[in-house]
Amino acid sequence: MDVRERIKTLLQQAEIYQSQGLLNEAKNSYMNAGQLIKKNEDIIKNKSLLGSIAAKVRAINDEMKRLDESPLHKEMPEQVQEVIRTKFSFSADENLRALEGAVALAKFGQYKRALKEFHTLMIREDIRMDVAKNIIRCHMATDMIEDAVAQYVQWTGGTQFSVTQLGKLRFFLQNILEKKGIERELPLPEETVREDKEAAQEEVLDISSVGITVSEGPKKGETIEFDVSFQSGNVINILISSKDREVLEHLNVGLTLNQVQFYSPIAMFNGKAVVSAKSKIESGPKEGFYSLDIKIKSI
Amino acid sequence: MANINLKDREIECKIVYYGPGRCGKTTNLEYIFKTFRKQVTGDMVCAKTEGDRTLFFDFLPMGIGKIKGFDVRMQLYTVSGDKVKICFHTQNGIKRGGWGLCFVADSLDVRREKNVLSLKDLHQNLKNTG
């Protein structure tokens, strides 16, 4: 192909890619065209062409920078949030479905709306502890440490939670603060709050991290600790870097983990679990990491 | 498999459009929205960035008539990136949701590798979900 034809084709390609939003591909085509022009300056007499191409590459770079720097968690219109809340919750139980909807909002980064939903769910006694923990998680996810602490303090002055429940919330928040390297002593709950009606009831433990003993491969016998990124009932979610290949290859869906250490704010427990889901994160701050759901079988 | 509600006499199907970024998933839904306006039962919802990139998902509810006296309702979704994994990728969600899949490939030759990677990713996700 004639050099001029090749340059023309590359420039047309670049325009098509740019119109399709394929910025990397457009940039590469413009740069390839620019390099061809430089190599054939005796044939291509148009002096301003290189300048035009450079300007287009700069514009693409600016656009890519703008996209990269755009906020990761943008509050969406209410219409979108309603779809998230109603369509991304699957439980048959009404209360759990409402909770799932609020958690889905948080997972989509819609923290303000998620907090609003969680606060309305506080009236439902059977899910109140889960709701409270998610309120704290939302504040921490948006780095609103003082809000999380203020919320806990507000609860200690109220009657929504028993002493035992407040104690658990205190441990939960204290543990998160310590992991973030924040030295803050939270006030102890007062003794005058109503007695714990749920003392006799079984409650799902709050797990902050897990230690998994690898049973195969080069790291066999080694116990590796992972922080819990999310918990819903007896299913916890952990994130593993793609660099931990030896561990990732071993942890596949359906695998029963016979030796798991569950770390809660109160104590450490040994138990069993099963890997229930595994997927790779394709975009966002954790791009390249793997997300694993671990279902607790016994503690 | 679709969800069948005997009480309300409704059959509900959900279709997820899956494919690499910028391949035309949103354009597909927009075309269906424009062409089948009468069948659209609600608003088309697009969670986009300031530009025209899909940030989270697009959602389009449709009614396509009756089968044996049951109203057939479809919900079409496009979901971007890791959001598929966050919200759809649970056994509970998949089993209860009655999901169908439509893989959308980019027709540009330069995107061939992205198409293949996306298809492999889909295959792995389906395998992980059982």
Question: How is this fold's topology laid out?
Answer:
The complex is a heterodimer of chains A (299) and B (130).
Chain A: H1 3-19, H2 23-39, H3 48-69, H4 78-87, H5 94-107, H6 111-121, H7 128-141, H8 145-156, H9 163-179, E1 209-213, E2 223-232, E3 235-240, H10 245-250, E4 256-263, E5 268-280, E6 290-298
Antiparallel strand pairs in A: 1-2, 1-4, 2-3, 3-6, 4-5, 5-6
Helix pairs in contact in A: 1-2, 2-3, 4-5, 5-6, 6-7, 7-8, 7-9, 8-9
Chain B: E1 3-5, E2 10-18, H1 25-35, E3 45-48, E4 54-67, E5 70-79, H2 83-88, H3 91-97, E6 99-103, H4 112-129
Parallel strand pairs in B: 2-5, 2-6
Antiparallel strand pairs in B: 1-2, 3-4, 4-5
Low-pLDDT segments of chain B: none
Dominant shape of chain A:
elongated
Structural class computed from helices and strand pairing of chain A = alpha+beta
Q: What overall form of chain B do the CA principal axes indicate?
A: globular
Percent range for helical residues of chain A?
40-55%
Largest sheet of chain B: 6 strands, mixed
Strand content of chain B: 25-35%
Largest sheet of chain A: 6 strands, antiparallel, barrel
Tell me what portion of residues of chain A adopts beta-strand conformation.
15-25%
List keywords for this structure.
heterodimer; A: 299 residues; alpha+beta; Methane Monooxygenase Hydroxylase, Chain G, domain 1; Serine Threonine Protein Phosphatase 5, Tetratricopeptide repeat; Thrombin, subunit H; 3 domains; 6-stranded antiparallel barrel; elongated; B: 130 residues; alpha/beta; 6-stranded mixed beta sheet; 4 helices; 32% helix; 35% strand
What's this, in brief?
Chain A is α+β, with helices and mostly antiparallel strands and 299 residues long. Chain A is 47% helix and 17% strand. With 130 residues, chain B is an alpha/beta fold.
